Sequence to fold (439 residues):
Amino acid sequence: MLREEAVKAALSSGAEEAEAFELFTREISIHVEKGKVKTASSVRMVGLGVRAAMGKKLGFAFATNPTSGVEVGREAAENSKAAPEDPDFGGLPDARKVDYLSELMDPKLRDLDLNEAADLFLAAVESARLSDKVISVSGKLEVSFSKVAVFSSKGVDALEERTYLIAYIEAASKDGDRRGSGFGFADGRRLDMFDPEKVGREAGDLAIRTLDATTIGVEELPVVFQPKAQFTLIPFLVGQAANAENLQYGRSFLTNRIGDQIAREEVSIVDDGRIPWLPGSSSFDAEGIPTGRTYVIENGVFKSPIHNWYTAMKEGVESTGNASRDHTRPPAISSHTVSIEAPSLQMKKDELLDVKRGVLVVYTMDTPNLSTGEFSGMAETAFLIESGEVTKSLRQTSMGFRIEDFLKTMDAVGDDVETLMGFKGGSVRVKIKVAGPGA
Fold:
């Protein structure tokens, strides 16, 4: 096996410790543009990344589709000799017992071929054509099957198979001079987590609804963020702001703030790497450390960063199992699946809309500023709420708030739970400032 060859070669070349990360991936990709398949491909790839340690020196090397692990292991060892000493390096990860999950690999998704994937995705495209007002449908489907393995001289020996699917549909609409757009989205580790007709209809329905649009001025209002509007906010809080590396280097607004109240008392935010079938789940992280469940914010208080082995050793704590990487780079840190827990704020989705005047945000691609925690961005898709009813789409609507204010003014969490892009949760209602070009 490549990983074993690489570790042995690194040790025989003078390394005191060595670790290999081996990845096999088969990926299908379908790209549709204006209703027609633009590209369709099926690709196989093997990747190998090796770390070799000599004292406080750490070297790295990688190869794509290598025929042997020997050269990669030797190169990593040679690179370690030339590397500067790192006083914070506490050695490569120790072996930990892994409790393997069974809900990570779907045989139906693994065995899907290119033609079946194309037919599946084109069904979603056709479902978006709800009327002749939908003038264009585009999108992308990616399906992958992977084998991920970590092997080291310190006894780490972890291997598992995973499947993954992500689908995105975007529809454009036109009615006279009026234009609109909408999207549908799905991801998961099981084939049946992608309902082509549902995803297509969501895109087409939004495209038609956004044709009837208005604008607002500058107002402070109750704002309901649907799940798709949160995956750039809540996972950012965990994966970036509470990332131990960012904290240790002083990049994050949460630096030196463990124990501070940064959300209302009823709110907890959890990172969980072991929820069945979700894309963020795995039995072990990219260093072979078991994944788990970490309360980053508990009862409003910043309780714990997320760690890989290096940052954990630097602080003298246990890794939270959040190492991430592909074969081309050493481990970084990322979140798994982030969710909000606030049972006392739970209510029905429709109850969240029970405001005299407010905004419903369906989608935003912007993220907060890492160093300040301030958000200034656009509500890419949003609607006006009037007397509890969702009415016209809003054009050119921006939002500004501090992420802490977002968490402290949250007064409701909906039961409309969705899972997407590393986030699991329902709609939330907060009070923030929104701004448009005026009525």
Observations:
- Residues 30 and 118 are 6 Å apart (CA to CA).
- The chain has ten helices and 24 strands.
- The chain has a mean pLDDT of 96.
- Residues 114-127 form the longest helix (14 residues).
